[in-house]
User: Which sequence fits this backbone?
């Protein structure tokens, strides 16, 4: 199906919109595992998810009809499993660039793949890769972005939305198309071996890069400075002049106070 507001080659060209589903990631994975082939770039977008999934087994809550909750299918067979964090980088940059004209310089990527505005979370992603040997066969990329939701419940304390920032509603489909077009551009950079560009740009967009802040790891709070993200996605934090430590996802928490 051709969608004319999607000006890219393939991301979002096959757009399937569903009123209600448990989780768009589950829907896309189930469709694929039932041997229903879907073209690369297929996007499943839901108005409402009743069991949206976040990172670390968390739930993803989103007011029905107000936000973007969608999953994208990519087939990054050119990418070795060891380099799978490059896909996270490319997708994060695509979401970032899709939002940047709207939101400006306060927009950041919080390692590994949260989208932040100032100190609040605007969105996140759940990337589920299907591996075949040392290659990635398929990738189901679930993205949740808070767009037109005016208020958030107490149990989502650190959330914000485009509406809270700009005080106006945005057209969800237009925003989706901008994000899809930018994801496609970064994905094609990766495919064209422009890995250094992807890695350098990701680093330059990072929340708290080269700034002194408080972190928690293993129950200990410490002040440190993010200096780098290694090729494999590990975060590098400088504790003092001659100590740099490396952290994988779940090993470090950012403390906002
Ligand atoms: C996070 O915890 O930051 C990741 C959130 C990812 C949510 C999106 S919404 C669309 C897709 N379907 C899901 O069930 N989760 C992802």
Assistant:
């Amino acid at each position: 199906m051709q969608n004319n507001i999607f000006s890219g080659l393939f991301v979002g060209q096959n757009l399937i919109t569903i009123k209600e589903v448990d989780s768009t990631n589950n829907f896309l994975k189930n469709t694929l595992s039932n041997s229903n082939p879907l073209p690369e770039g297929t996007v499943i977008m839901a108005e409402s998810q009743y069991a949206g999934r976040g990172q670390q087994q968390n739930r993803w809550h989103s007011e029905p009809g107000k936000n973007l909750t969608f999953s994208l299918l990519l087939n990054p067979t050119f990418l070795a499993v060891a380099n799978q964090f490059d896909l996270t980088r490319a997708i994060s940059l695509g979401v970032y660039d899709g939002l940047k004209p709207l939101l400006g310089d306060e927009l950041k990527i919080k390692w590994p793949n949260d989208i932040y505005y100032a100190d609040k979370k605007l969105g996140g992603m759940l990337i589920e890769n299907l591996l075949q040997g040392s290659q990635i066969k398929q990738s189901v990329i679930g993205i949740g972005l808070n767009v037109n939701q005016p208020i958030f419940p107490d149990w989502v304390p650190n959330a914000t939305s485009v509406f809270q920032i700009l005080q106006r509603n945005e057209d969800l489909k237009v925003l989706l198309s901008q994000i899809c077009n930018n994801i496609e551009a970064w994905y094609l950079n990766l495919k064209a071996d422009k890995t250094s560009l992807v890695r350098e740009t990701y680093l330059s967009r990072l929340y708290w890069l080269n700034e002194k802040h408080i972190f928690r790891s293993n129950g200990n709070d410490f002040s440190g400075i993010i200096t780098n993200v290694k090729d494999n996605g590990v975060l590098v934090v400088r504790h003092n002049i001659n100590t740099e430590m490396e952290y994988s996802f779940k090993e470090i928490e950012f403390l906002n106070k």
